[in-house]
Design a protein that fits this description.
There is one protein chain. By secondary structure, the protein is of the alpha+beta class. The protein has two domains: 229 residues, FAD/NAD(P)-binding domain, CATH 3.50.50; 122 residues, D-Amino Acid Oxidase, Chain A, domain 2 (2-Layer Sandwich), CATH 3.30.9. The protein has an eight-stranded mixed beta sheet with strand order 6-5-14-15-16-13-17-20. Strands 8-2-1-12-19-18 form a six-stranded mixed beta sheet. Strands 3-7-4 form a three-stranded antiparallel beta sheet. A hairpin with a 7-residue loop joins β9 and β10. It is globular.
């Protein structure tokens, strides 16, 4: 099998890259190790930056997002039982975010790919990337019970943190930067209308809490818990009781309860692999970087990566110049490190470390007071939350 760009992974990064390449007249083949049902149902991120929304619309993949997604013009910071709203459009010149789950983005992109006939192989497990430093890289994969080879001009590793693409970068060239946090998120899905019309980020002496949503009738909520916690350690009653304590305000606001349909625990870590390019292999999304979910940056960083890569490949096709391809890693990493910085800042601003002192607590409150009282500080948060420029 032969193509111009071999794409490993049919998550949002791989699927969007295939879509953007099609628009540029560049052929590709997408290999995905899981079946279609798994890809279309795995729960992941749900906040799309303004730039991500714009890219999906421009790619012809925004119709259902615009119909069913929930535009949000701000978030609420909650601390010391008080509430402060961060007004995104007012602080950024009109930018906002969209609540639309990664699951739905994947469904939309798969539907378009299937309708238009682009090669998309499910249950096609990539085994190795070979010859990445040559003019003819190959992806060895297993599909329908037999091994095959995808010959390419370029390989895009969009196969997540545990995929094979990053392993093709020699250890002697790799630099890894990472931090593991001593806490995790216990997340629930509940069949109840959200108790607030925008996301609520709560800092509490007992730990962080987040009120989010998947739709007007489904709430998504999170609690900070110790690293290593198992979801089954928390009963439904314990979850709701703790959420109520951490979201409590002085103005009588109430958290509405409902049936919990799913519980899971998300570990918290920061990770960056440099470089994001080796020869004709380009890493994108979780294959190259992980952020703690507090800043809602993971999916959006992946979109930034593939927009940069698609633009570079189109430039090479049109001009014959590899200039943008050669700059891919450097270009992406500028954005990645800003997102890592913001995600770290939000995480340490709102979570209480196990060894936190009274001094640490007062510093957190002082930082939150600064955001609430200073337009400059509020603008910095709003600009980062709604998205860094791509490229």
């Amino acid at each position: 099998m032969r193509t111009t760009v071999g794409i490993i992974g049919a998550g949002p990064a791989g699927l969007l890259l295939a879509r953007l390449l099609r628009g540029a007249g560049i052929d590709s083949v997408v290999l995905e190790s899981r079946d279609r049902a798994h890809v279309e149902h795995r729960q992941r991120a749900g906040i799309l930056e303004q730039g991500t929304v714009d890219v999906l619309r421009a790619a012809g993949a925004g119709e259902r997002m615009d119909r069913e997604g929930l535009r949000h013009d701000g978030i609420e910071l909650r601390f010391a039982r008080r509430r402060h709203r961060v007004d995104f459009p007012g602080l950024t010149g009109g930018r906002s975010v969209m609540v639309y789950a990664q699951t739905e983005v994947c469904r939309d992109l798969i539907a378009l790919r299937t309708k238009e006939g682009g090669p998309l192989l499910f249950e096609a497990e990539a085994l190795a990337v070979e010859g990445a430093d040559t003019d003819a890289p190959r992806v060895r994969f297993r599909h329908a019970g037999r091994e095959d080879v995808l010959e390419c001009s370029y390989v895009a590793g969009c196969d997540g943190f545990w995929g094979v693409a990053r392993k093709a970068v020699p250890a002697s060239l790799s630099r890894v930067f990472e931090r593991t946090y001593p806490y995790a998120w216990l997340g629930i899905l509940a069949d109840v209308a959200p108790s607030h019309d925008e996301l609520v980020y709560a800092r509490h002496d007992r730990g962080f809490a987040l009120l989010s949503m998947r739709s007007p009738s489904v709430s998504r909520l999170y609690l900070q818990v110790p690293a290593g916690t198992e979801a089954g350690e928390w009963s439904d009653e314990d979850v709701w009781g703790e959420l109520e304590r951490r979201f409590e305000t002085t103005d009588g606001w109430r958290l509405e309860r409902g049936p919990i349909t799913q519980k899971s625990v998300t570990p918290m870590r920061s990770y960056v692999h440099e470089p994001m390019r080796y020869g004709r292999l380009f890493l994108a999304g979780d294959a190259a970087h992980i952020v703690p979910p507090t800043g809602a940056k993971g999916l959006n960083l992946a979109v930034g990566d593939v927009v940069t890569l698609a633009r570079a490949l189109a430039h090479e096709k049109e001009t014959g110049s590899p200039e943008l391809l050669d700059a891919y890693s450097e270009t992406c990493l500028r954005r990645v490190w800003q997102a890592e910085r913001f995600s770290y800042d939000m995480t340490t601003l709102l979570h209480r470390a196990p060894d936190a002192t009274a001094f640490d607590d007062r510093l957190q409150l002082a930082r939150l007071e600064r955001i609430a009282s200073s337009r400059a500080a509020g603008t910095d948060l709003a600009e980062a939350y709604t998205g860094f420029p791509v490229g």
